[in-house]
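Customer escalation, tier 2.

The customer says the design service returned an amino acid string that "doesn't look like it belongs to this structure." They asked us to rerun it and document both sides in this ticket. The original structure tokens are below, unchanged.
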């Protein structure tokens, strides 16, 4: 399971537990209240760990791209034949501004990162 799906699953379970906790509180069922509060604490902790891991991985990827010595905007003509460009430049990483890493880097246009000038 991907990290994104796992985070979403945990959020769904957490939401369901919160609803069940509200129902248990309205019934004054102390056994169920303690069960769901423990479950909510456990899920919240696991969710925080996964979100931290995700941000750590994103930050690591962002740093590796910024450490590359050369980057520039990819022109429309190059975008039209991206396969040819990737074959001609060894180690080229193309980042679109609408992807998660592109938003993290605050890009406005499609940008290529490479270890050498292209």
């Amino acid at each position: 399971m991907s990290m994104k799906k796992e985070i979403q699953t945990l959020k769904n379970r957490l939401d369901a537990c919160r609803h069940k906790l509200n129902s248990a509180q309205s019934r004054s069922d102390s056994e169920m209240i303690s069960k769901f509060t423990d479950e909510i604490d456990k899920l919240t902790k696991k969710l925080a760990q996964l979100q931290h891991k995700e941000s750590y991985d994103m930050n690591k990827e962002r740093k590796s791209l910024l450490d590359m010595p050369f980057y520039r905007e990819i022109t429309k003509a190059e975008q039209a034949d991206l396969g040819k460009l990737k074959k001609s430049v060894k180690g080229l990483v193309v980042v679109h501004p609408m992807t998660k890493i592109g938003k993290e880097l605050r890009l406005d246009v499609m940008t290529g990162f490479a270890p050498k000038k292209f």
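Tier 2 assessment: The sequence is consistent with the input. The beta strands are 70-73, 93-95, 111-114. Helices lie at 3-27, 30-66, 76-80, 82-88, 100-104. Sent an explanation to the customer and offered a walkthrough call.
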